[in-house]
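queue> pop job 88
queue> type: inverse folding (structure -> sequence)
queue> payload:
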């Protein structure tokens, strides 16, 4: 069926160069159908009205002058933004479409119905502005979308509403902010066959990490029902993260993170349009996507990114009737990809405080201010500059208000919600999806909002002291001695990925166990031994759906290690197996049932001695399963395993045997196993340890404690605890000499090099093989190592 191509074009008749004809969204959809369809990327078919159709409608309706006059009055300050936008939208929706445009739209809709086998095919109607989604300006959410539109008359009505949405308050404000002339913008309406995601799920995908800008991750958010709930932040969605460089290798499963969202509500088909409905309990407890679907979406994201040559923000949907995955929108990501690469600003909270609410951390900054609770648009005018905006959720109409806030806190939303996206763009820290901020936080209360402590953001009572440090990543010298980084958590690894270090010298498993898993591994394996009803109930709730409760531990530990490994791939990431002491293990949920009381846990049942004991062997096997999964299933063969507190070479043999029983065989698939050098016996018997392990890493804290006989936690003896003592230096020299004689590398991951520059100089002089520093000391450490190496070269040539 033919129609006037001046006013309507099929999407597959458009390409990326047709933004002036059909706007950013529709040009992008046409480009993907034409260019990426052959590569397997599915995009629903449809058509678009042209910019010429919009202009012809405005001219025929004699609206150009009235629109111009009202915008001019707004610019002169004679009319409010709200009144201006409302009047313009009313004029547009009240006008009739010219007959030739309406005829073309009707003809295209009938042809789409014929192709779909349904004369009243339900369609999604989306706005697409001609200056939209430029790389330097994000127009996401500025215009409207209408879903489940059926019939010609409803479609024509939706087209007029889309035209009117070119003048929403937020769109007018945004164009003025970006310096884009209103008269130069036109609007195209995209009409696509509806994807029945109301019967399945939908969401948003970014082809980089939205918080840190790390380019090798794909981030996917998902919720049940139509995708507007994720975009608008009305639900807390599932989140999945995938390591992009491994996607071309189908033998790997590079999913490095999954978190289950609450997904309390979903948007479904209504009698007319859509309606909000409660999500059934079984769906709330289930992930929206299976692993193969996550990987398929991530691969499509990588294909889309490669085609456009830049990070992308993509909307996707799954059809519940066919099971097919589809891409429904794609636009450039404009926040992280637009940041200056050489500058890095770090925030550090300097004091503790009472934690009031917790949610997702958006950004990595800290802000303090007075709580101002805003429950709706009618209250916006009372918000004062520099306050902490607390609300249930935001939508695009809130942008002018959000610009005035020092920080933002919401009850609802995920990492790809409107509040999160705009907060990133504005550079404002936000804590999203707290569930209860509007009820817990009090109007006028002074608080500190911190997004600098990992994936979770926290709101603390009072104004706490914090430090802001600007790091210049340009001009960092090369060193012969590799400088690595110690990381406490997966979030820290991602936060510091830009640092020019050469791997991770120490990643601690116990952080992931304590902060993410939270439960004692033996409590998962032997819950009947727990006499604490609260702990048993917690375990039952968290492991619901797991036939093997140990898998709860393995899965989460693997995700955490995998994220750290991804942050530095292919550089080495040295992962230390758990080194909790008995008193620390006892603090985990269910832990007291499995931990004996000890007078001196620092010298007790810790490290290697636990791994082969009957009381803990099964729990260590869970750690090994997680490490094996990271290396052999996810594909991160840059992970090096390190054994802590191994008192004798024979104990090392027993640990290696336990690892082999769980699938971690030293030497297989390139697996290297290091041993911590933190006990004098590790050094005095270095030759024997070198026969069993592939390398050493000095733990200067424990080594100093055991050489000097000083409890490192004893405040009264702190003046005696000094890693720079001659006895410590002598042992380090001995270790490096013995290890090198047996072809084994020696690194250091203890605190001393981060605290004492002279200690770092000593290590370089002794030809240590690597130095691992705390993240905030890496740049200074690299420069110091380079200076020492240059001095040594000059002395050698003199």
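queue> result:
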């Amino acid at each position: 069926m033919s129609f006037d191509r001046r006013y309507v074009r099929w999407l597959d008749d458009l390409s990326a160069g047709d933004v002036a004809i059909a706007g950013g969204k529709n040009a992008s959809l046409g480009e993907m159908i034409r260019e990426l369809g052959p590569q397997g990327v599915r995009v629903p078919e449809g058509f678009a009205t042209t910019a010429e159709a919009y202009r012809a409608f405005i001219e025929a309706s004699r609206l150009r002058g009235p629109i111009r006059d009202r915008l001019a009055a707004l610019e002169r300050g004679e009319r409010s933004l709200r009144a201006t936008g409302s009047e313009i939208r009313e004029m547009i929706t009240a006008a009739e479409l010219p007959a030739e445009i309406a005829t073309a739209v009707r003809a295209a809709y009938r042809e789409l119905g014929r192709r779909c086998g349904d004369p009243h095919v339900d369609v999604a109607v989306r706005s697409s502005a001609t200056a939209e989604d430029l790389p330097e300006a994000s127009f996401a959410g500025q215009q409207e979308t209408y879903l489940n539109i059926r019939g010609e008359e409803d479609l024509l009505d939706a087209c007029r509403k889309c035209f009117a949405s070119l003048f929403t308050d937020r769109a007018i404000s945004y164009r003025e902010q970006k310096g884009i002339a209103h008269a130069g913008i036109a609007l195209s309406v995209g009409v696509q066959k509806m994807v029945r995601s109301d019967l399945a799920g939908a969401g948003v995908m970014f082809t980089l990490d939205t918080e840190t800008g790390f380019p090798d991750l794909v981030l996917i958010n998902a919720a049940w029902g139509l995708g507007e709930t994720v975009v608008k932040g009305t639900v807390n969605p599932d989140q999945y993260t995938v390591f992009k460089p491994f996607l071309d290798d189908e033998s790997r499963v590079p999913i490095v993170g999954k978190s289950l969202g609450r997904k309390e509500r979903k948007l479904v088909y209504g009698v007319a349009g859509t309606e909000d409905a409660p999500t059934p309990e079984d769906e709330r407890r289930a992930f929206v996507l299976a692993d193969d679907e996550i990987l398929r979406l991530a691969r499509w994201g990588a294909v889309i990114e490669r085609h456009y040559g830049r990070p992308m923000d993509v909307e996707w949907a799954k059809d519940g009737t066919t099971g097919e995955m589809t891409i429904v929108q794609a636009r450039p990501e404009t926040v992280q990809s637009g940041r200056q690469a050489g500058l890095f600003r770090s925030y550090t909270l300097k004091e503790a405080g009472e934690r009031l609410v917790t949610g997702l951390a958006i950004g990595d900054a800290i802000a303090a201010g007075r709580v101002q609770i805003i429950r709706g648009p009618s209250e916006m005018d009372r918000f004062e500059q520099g306050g902490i905006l607390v609300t249930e959720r935001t939508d695009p109409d809130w942008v002018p208000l959000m610009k005035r806030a020092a920080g933002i806190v919401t009850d609802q939303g995920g990492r790809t919600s409107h509040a999160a996206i705009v907060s990133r763009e504005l550079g404002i820290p936000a804590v999203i999806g707290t569930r209860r901020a509007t009820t817990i936080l009090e109007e006028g209360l002074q608080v500190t909002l911190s997004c600098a402590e990992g994936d979770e953001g926290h709101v603390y009572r009072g104004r706490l002291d914090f430090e802001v440090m600007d790091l210049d990543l340009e001009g960092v010298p090369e060193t012969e001695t590799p400088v690595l980084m110690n990381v406490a958590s997966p979030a820290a690894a991602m936060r510091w990925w830009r640092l020019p270090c050469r791997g991770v010298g120490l990643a601690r498993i116990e952080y992931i166990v304590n902060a993410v898993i939270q439960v004692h591994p033996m409590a998962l394996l032997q819950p009947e031994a727990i006499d604490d009803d609260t702990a048993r109930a917690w375990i039952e709730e968290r492991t619901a759906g797991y036939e093997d409760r140990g898998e709860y531990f393995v899965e989460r530990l693997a995700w955490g290690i995998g994220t750290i490994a991804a942050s530095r791939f292919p550089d080495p990431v040295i992962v230390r197996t758990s080194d909790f002491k008995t008193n620390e293990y006892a603090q985990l949920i269910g832990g007291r049932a499995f931990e004996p009381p000890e007078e001196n846990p620092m010298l007790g049942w810790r490290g290697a001695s636990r791994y082969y004991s009957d009381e803990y062997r099964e729990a260590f096997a869970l750690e090994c399963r997680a490490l094996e999964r990271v290396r052999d299933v996810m594909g991160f063969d840059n992970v090096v395993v390190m054994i802590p507190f191994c008192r004798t070479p024979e104990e090392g043999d027993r640990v290696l045997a336990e690892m082999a029983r769980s699938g971690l065989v030293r030497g297989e698939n390139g697996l290297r196993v290091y041993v911590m050098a933190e006990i004098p016996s590790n050094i005095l018997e270095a030759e024997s340890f070198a026969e069993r392990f592939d390398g050493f890493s000095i733990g200067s804290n424990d080594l100093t404690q055991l050489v000097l006989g000083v409890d490192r936690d004893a405040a009264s003896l702190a003046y005696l605890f000094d890693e720079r003592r001659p006895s410590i230096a002598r042992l380090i020299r001995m270790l490096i000499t013995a290890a090198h004689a047996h072809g084994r590398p020696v690194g250091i991951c203890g605190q001393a090099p981060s605290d004492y520059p002279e200690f770092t100089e000593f290590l370089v002089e002794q030809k240590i093989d690597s130095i691992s520093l705390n993240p905030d000391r890496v740049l200074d450490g690299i420069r110091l190592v380079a200076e020492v190496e240059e001095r040594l070269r000059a002395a050698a040539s003199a």
